Give the backbone structure.
Amino acid sequence: MDKRNVDVVLIRMDKIGDLVVTLPVDRHPVFAGSRVHWFVSRGLGFIAEQAAPKRAVSEFKRGFSPNEFLRMIRWLKKNKPQTVVLFHTPWWVSLAVWLAGVPERIGRKSQWHSFLFYNVGVRQSRKASDRHESDYNFDLVEWGFNRLGCRKTSALPVIKKSFLRLIAPNPFGTIAAYGLKNQEYRVVHPGMAGSALNWPTKNFKELIEALSREMPVVITGTKMDMKFLNQMIEIKDLPGVKWLVDQLKFFDLLDILSQARSVTAPSTGVLHLAASLDVPVVGIYSPKRVEHPRRWGPKGIKTAVLVPDESLAHNSNVMEEITPDQVIKTIREIETSRPNHDVLSIPTA
C-alpha cells in the first residue's frame, strides 16, 4: 500500500474572518492522532502559521488557473490523504480532489460541483443563520465522519466553544517602530469588504475624534477599505490619530493588534484576528439574519458586539441605531471586564 504523508486535508479558501472561525474545527476529536493539513487562499497562510498550535498549511490562488489546478492535484497524489473536508471551495478545487483520487471527500451539498465530486455529501442549509459559522463547521465534520462510521461525539457542545488562538510574531519591536506603547493606544478599523452593512462613516469619525482625546487611536485598513476611508481622510491629521492605512504587512498587523487596549471594527477579518489575539474587541454588526453576530460574531476571551434590533433589519438607515456614545461606553466596559468565552451581545433598541 502507498504510504500516506497526510491523513486529512481541510480546505477553506475564503476570506480572513471565515478562515479564523473555521481553523478551530481541527480540534474535533475525530482528528486526534491524525496528520492534518490545511489548504487556504493565497496570502492567508500566516493565520495558520501563527496559530497556537501551529497548523500545517499550503496556499493556493482562489481563482482558477491551470498551474494552481495541476499543483493541487500533484500535491494530493504525492501526499495521499485518506480524507478531504471541503468547507468552502471554488469548483476547481472539488474537481482536483476528485481527480486526485482522494477516497473520502466530505462536504456540504450546496453548489453544483458538490453533487458531482463529493462522495460523503452532507445536507446542511446555512440560510437560517441560527448558529455561529464555527458551529456549522463542527457539525459538518461531525455528521460527515458519522457517515463514515465514526461514533457520535458526546462532548460536541463543549468542543464547539473552541476558538482560534494566535501569537503575534514581534509585538514589542513593531509597536516601538511605530512610536506606540503597550496598552496605551486603541485600534479602530472602519472599513470592510462590503459583505455586510457597515456603520456610517460620520459615526466612525465622531468615535475616533472622541477616543483620540483620551489616548492615541490607530486607524488600520487596506486599499479595499478606501471606499469608507476616503470619506474620513481629514481625521488623518488629528493630533491623537495614527493613520496606518495600507502601511502594515500581515505580521505587522498582528503585532499592532496584539498590544492594543482594544479593537473596534465592523464585521470584518481584523475583528476576528484581534479576538484570537486575546484583545478586547467591540464589533458593530448588522441585524440582517445572514450578517448577524449570531452567525459571524468574534470569538475570544473579551468580546462584545452592538447590533440593532432585528425587527429593524429592513430599514435603510438601520445602522444609525447604534450611536457613537453607545460604542464608547461598550469599549470602556469591555476593556475593564473580566475575560469571558461568550460574545456579549448589546442590542441598541
Notes: The radius of gyration is 21 Å. Residues 44 and 341 are 25 Å apart (CA to CA). The chain has 14 helices and 13 strands. Residues 341-346 have pLDDT under 50 and may be disordered.
